[in-house]
Every structure is written in structure tokens, then in C-alpha cells.
Amino acid sequence: MTSRIGVVTFPGTLDDQDALRAARLAGAEPVSLWHRDKDLKQVDAVVLAGGFSYGDYLRAGAISRFSPVMETVVEQARAGMPVLGICNGFQILTEAHLLPGAMLRNDHLHFVCRDQRLRVENADTAWTADYEQGQEISVPLKNMDGRYVADERTLDELEAEGRVAFRYLDVNPNGSLRDIAGITNAAGNVVGLMPHPEHAVEPLVGTGRTDGLGFFTSILKKLVNA
User: Fold this and answer.
1) Residue 155: phi, psi to the nearest 5?
2) Which position among 35, 95, 121, 198 bears the catalytic label?
3) In this structure, which long-range contacts are made by residues 74-79, counting pairs with CB atoms below 8 Å and at least 24 apart in sequence?
4) Is the pLDDT of residue 1 over 80?
5) What is the Cα–Cα distance from 161 to 181, expressed in whole angstroms?
6) Cβ distance 221 to 129 under 8 Å?
7) Active-site residue flag, 199
8) Is 157 a catalytic site residue?
């Protein structure tokens, strides 16, 4: 049976179709999920895609966190369901307290859009198993509120427990503390990052490389072998 990967659409989501396409290219069955519907349609994993849900009012992700679908996503994530938050999805995961820390306005106060080199710091999560620790990849980055922050104790815990999943290379594009581009929860089933792997799954578009496809092949293998 083909694994089903659900992608949630909120008002203002931009990259849901890209994420659905990435899931299909990896060999999964993509399933569209609507923010007002608590039913996850029996999916095996969930992606919270990028965009500007609810116009980023109050704080990026702050309103989406209270959408009906998130009640089920939070419950299932805590029970072990794999969840990936990309850009705005990462912001929603922090607002929902599935991941620690918060996302603030870029330190230079400008929107950034560029191809971004990353180093894989943790290749043992449900979403990164097809990479190798230390591997360098390049995926698009586009955000205004992409600066990851947390208190020193939390940052030290993330480092000590190997929960920094990705780190920026060459340049820190938004002022994120310790060059953190993405993190995971302790169980490794919930991952959030600011760059957009779903835009790097075909040679024709994005970076011209397929460095982001590994997120989706990783979770597919995880589900098949579960």
C-alpha cells in the first residue's frame, strides 16, 4: 500500500502544491488537508507548507496554530506521527509548542530570497534518514520572519541532544542563533526548517538540483519500514 502524505493548506499558504508534488515525485500518495477540517484522512505523515498563513498577523504562525486541523496534528505528532514544518510550517510548529524556540523578524529587516547552502547535522530523523551527517546541500530560502531564537539553556540542550537538524553555511541569512536552519524534537518525528526542500526536487526548477527530495524519500522509507 502506498504511504499517504498530507499537506495542510491554511489561508495564505503558498507552497502546498509544491509540497504535494514533491511527495508524489518521491513515490507517496499526496493528500490535501484543509485547515478547518480536523480529519487527517488517514494520512501517514503531515507537511505544514510554507507561505504567509493568515497574513502573518500577530506573529507568523500564531493564528494558524489554533486552526481545527492543528488540534489533530498536535495530538498525532505527540503520538509519533511524522510532521514536517517548512518555513511558515516551522513557525507554526514553534507556536504549537511541538518544537522549542521562536521565529522573529530577520535581523536585517528585509525579505530574503536565495539559494542557501546547508549542512545536515542530524541524519537520524524520520525526515532526514536519506542524508548523511555532515552532508552539504543547497535548497531555496525565502522568508521575512526566519530568525530562529531560543534561550541559552534551550540552545545548549538542542546541541547536546543532537537536535539541530540543519545549519546555515557560508552566510547566516536571517540572524538565526548558532546558524540554526532547522531542528527536530527529541523523538525525531517532528522536524522544522526555514529553507524550502520542496523547491529542490527536480533539476528543471529551483536550484537546478534535487537536494530537497531526500526529505520526502526519507519519510517514505520510514513509513514503508515501520
Assistant:
1) -60, -45
2) 198
3) 74/98, 76/40, 76/46, 77/46, 77/189, 77/190
4) no
5) 16
6) yes
7) no
8) no
The catalytic position among 35, 95, 196, 199 is: 196
51 or 61, greater pLDDT? 51
Residue 207 in this model has a pLDDT that exceeds 80: no
Please state, in angstroms and as integers, the Cα–Cα distance from residue 225 to each residue in 31, 92, 126, 159, following that order: 20, 28, 11, 28
- Cell numbers for 157, please give them: 540542550
∠ at Cα 196 (128, 198), nearest 5°?
75
Q: Cell for 98?
A: 511541538
Are 92 and 63 in contact by the 8 Å Cβ rule? The answer is no
Phi first, then psi, for residue 172 (nearest 5°) are -90, 110
Told to judge if 35 belongs to the known catalytic residues of this protein, a careful annotator would answer: no
- Is the pLDDT at 158 greater than 70? The verdict is yes
Q: What domains are defined for the chain?
A: 4-225 (3.40.50.880)
Kindly state the average pLDDT of the residues 111-138: 97
Which one of 35, 87, 95, 199 is the catalytic residue?
87
Residues with Cβ < 8 Å from 75, sequence gap 6 or more? none
